[in-house]
Specification:
36% helix, 16% strand, 20 helices, alpha/beta, single chain, 546 residues, five-stranded parallel β-sheet
Length: 546
């Protein structure tokens, strides 16, 4: 089997490729990006095929550098490039060098397997190789190992018509020894063998026991005791998706990946688990925006690259622009990502709105008319380049664009408070979301929690795994909002929120980073120097060389 090396920043697509090529080769490495490619490549000892989609390419120039370096050391390695661009110099150059380039539009079940097998097939025979063999050729029969002459060369007659030797094939003689019993494929070894005499017949004297394989010695050894059937381990066949299931999954992936142009102009290094979280209010004012914005501040303060995305609605302007006091705090000449996509079809990161370690992606100030599904997909994929992306769905979970975002999320967090009347009116909403997104991890966050809420009855009402409880902070939250600040800006409120935010941090960041956050808020200032030394996303993006 071929040794396959996969680079993909999309977990669903990577899983689809691994399933598609499970019988073609063995995946020796699977990476999220090209950032640490060469250490992994050297550790793996090379591969036959490197598979990667266009979304992981930092730049065409960087890809060509990697390509030249790999082919200097391993000229037989094939690059399999899955692209969404139009055919250009890069794809043509790859094809001319004997690599494989496939468009997302042409991608289908069985295509990658056939292309890789075709690429690895033996080349056609040359004219010299096709010439008949003029010498005597001998072949042994199946069992008696007595070579018999089956092809002879007749004398050549030097005539104008005949310039090549004429071959005459004689019939192959039948084996003269008795064959061993045939073992059916579906049978277990040994148990299904017919019970025959333990010793080899005299006519097989020339086939010595010592010359046989260990398995044959066991079969024919004298006084053999049949082994216990229960002791024989039969490997379970790997469960493989059907072609229809693979095709259905590919269609879902294509629906959100196929884009005619490159979306984001900056390459974001991935250091943590790349996560997309949809935060949903079960009903209006349940608290999704409060939790999303303050939790993002906690992550940003600890150097976890995080983006907060506000979906676009055709009849509503931006809430986050008001929350962040955009008229004062927005960057100069700031333009929302939604407006950029609507005007030019892509996002420029020159004037991204970043503060306190968080990249804020508010919607436009005024509603955008004609916001299409493709526009929504471009906005989401642009935001999802960050290691952690929090999408504030609020109570708009019935919106078609929000449903697409939730379907692409790694987890869905539903926020509800302890109001029993509101819960009674919306428990069917929970059942609906569980049914619509049954393959997603859905958790509940209890907001404005206090001692008057009956915990057991509340859990019976929501019937979802509890992520955390956010305590009721009282009217001081309104005081902070009127002052143009968030709850996280107050030292006392930060200390209160840090504890219930820890389970949320554990869900979205890498294990080692979570332990740092845990120590940061458990031991005070001991690790502040460590966090100062960790480069931010923007710093690393500026200093990184390709």
């Amino acid at each position: 089997m071929k040794r396959l090396f996969l680079i993909s920043d999309d977990k669903d697509f990577a899983e689809w490729i691994e399933e598609e090529l499970s019988e073609t080769g063995r995946f020796i490495r699977s990476l999220d990006s090209f950032d640490f490619f060469f250490p992994q490549w050297n550790a793996a000892g090379g591969a036959d095929v490197i598979i990667f989609p266009e979304t992981v390419i930092p730049s065409d120039e960087n890809l060509l550098k990697i390509y030249r370096t790999v082919h200097t050391e391993s000229p037989d390695t094939v690059f399999l490039f899955i692209y969404h661009r139009d055919e250009d110099d890069l794809t043509n150059s790859f094809l001319n060098d004997g690599n494989i380039c496939v468009s997302y539009n042409d991608l289908d079940t069985g295509l990658l397997e056939s292309l890789i097998r075709k690429d690895g097939a033996p080349k056609a025979l040359s004219v010299e190789q096709q010439q008949p063999i003029p010498e005597e050729t001998k072949i042994s029969t199946l069992k008696n190992e007595v070579p018999e002459k089956i092809i002879t060369t007749l004398p050549q007659e030097e005539t104008k018509e005949a310039t090549k030797p004429v071959l005459q094939i004689e019939p192959i003689p039948e084996p003269i020894t008795k064959q061993r019993p045939f073992i059916k494929e579906e049978s277990k070894i040994i148990q299904d063998l017919p019970k025959e005499p333990a010793f080899t017949p005299q006519s097989d004297k020339d086939e010595k026991l010592s010359d046989r394989t260990p398995a044959e010695q066991v079969v024919t050894a004298p006084h053999r005791t049949p082994p216990d059937e229960s002791a024989v381990e039969v490997p379970k066949p790997r469960k493989k998706r059907s072609t229809a299931e693979q095709k259905e999954k590919l269609d879902r992936i294509k629906e959100r990946i196929i884009i005619e142009e490159k979306i984001v102009t900056i390459h974001v290094p991935v250091h943590f688990n790349s996560m997309l979280i949809s935060v949903v209010s079960l009903y209006p004012r349940a608290g999704a925006t409060f939790i999303t914005s303050n939790f993002a501040r906690m992550l940003g303060e600890n150097k976890v690259p995080v983006a907060v995305l506000e979906p676009v609605f055709e009849n509503t302007g931006s809430t986050y622009y008001e929350l962040m006091h955009g008229e004062v705090n927005a960057p100069k000449n700031w333009k929302s990502w939604a407006e950029q996509i609507k005007d030019s079809g892509s996002v420029k990161q020159d004037n991204s709105w970043s503060s306190h370690g968080v990249t804020w992606i508010p919607s436009s100030l005024d509603p955008i008319k004609g916001w299409s599904e493709e526009d929504n997909m471009k906005l989401l994929l642009s935001a999802n380049r960050y290691p952690v992306t929090l999408c504030d769905i609020s109570s708009r979970h019935d919106d078609a664009h929000c449903k697409k975002i939730m379907a692409m999320s790694d987890e869905i967090w539903i926020v509800a408070d302890g109001d029993p009347i509101a819960l009674n009116h919306h428990y069917k909403t929970i059942d609906k979301l569980k049914q619509e997104f049954e393959s997603k991890t859905i958790r509940i966050i209890g907001n404005r929690w206090n001692r008057y809420i009956k915990n057991s009855e509340w859990k019976e009402a929501v019937l979802l795994p509890l992520l955390t409880h956010i305590p009721d902070l009282g009217t001081i939250v309104l005081k902070q909002l009127w002052a143009g600040k968030m709850a996280w800006d107050d030292t006392n409120l930060k200390n209160i929120l840090s504890l219930p935010f820890k389970p949320m941090a554990r869900s979205v960041v890498a294990k080692e980073m979570y332990h740092l956050i845990k120590k940061q808020y458990g031991l005070g200032a001991k690790l502040k120097s460590i966090f100062r030394e960790i480069k931010s996303l923007d710093d690393e993006a500026k200093t990184r060389k390709y």
